[in-house]
Amino acid sequence: MQLINKQQKIVLLYRIINISAEDNILNYGKIWIKDKGQTVMLHYVENSKNEMSKLVEYWENSKVENIRNELI
């Protein structure tokens, strides 16, 4: 019986189209990272809207600095 599952997905920064998030009343939520071929959903993220803001800032900075192959 497996109680905890871990899964890793790679999203290249230059492929990202959109990042969005939602929180519930307990301040946990989901983050969606949409790229050109898939949508990755992160579950049970504490302060997901704050974490989304950090990801968006990192993503925007990578576009300005022309970083193509960095991963989220």
What would a concise description of this structure say?
The protein is α+β, with helices and mostly antiparallel strands and 72 residues long. 24% of the residues lie in helices and 33% in strands.
Q: How would you characterize the overall build of this protein?
A:
It is a single chain. By secondary structure, the protein is α+β, with helices and mostly antiparallel strands. The protein has one domain. Helix content is 24%, strand content 33%. The chain contains one helix and three strands. Strands 1-2-3 form a three-stranded antiparallel beta sheet, covered by helices on one side.
Task: Reconstruct the topology from this structure.
Layout lengths: L15 E8 L4 E8 L3 E8 L1 H17 L8
Antiparallel strand pairs: 1-2, 2-3
Widest sheet: strand ordering: 1-2-3
Q: What's the end-to-end separation, in Å?
A: 30 Å
Number of domains: 1
Structural class: alpha+beta
Please tally the helical runs, counting DSSP H or I stretches of 4 or more residues: 1
Oligomer: single chain
Helix and strand pattern:
EEEH
Radius of gyration from the CA trace? 13 Å
Q: Give start-end ranges of low-pLDDT stretches.
A: none
- The portion of residues assigned to helices is 10-25%
Beta strand %: 25-35%
Average pLDDT taken over every residue: 86
How is the biggest beta sheet arranged? 3 strands, antiparallel
User: Could you say which overall geometry the principal axes of the C-alpha atoms support?
Assistant: globular
- Please tally the β strands and state the result: 3
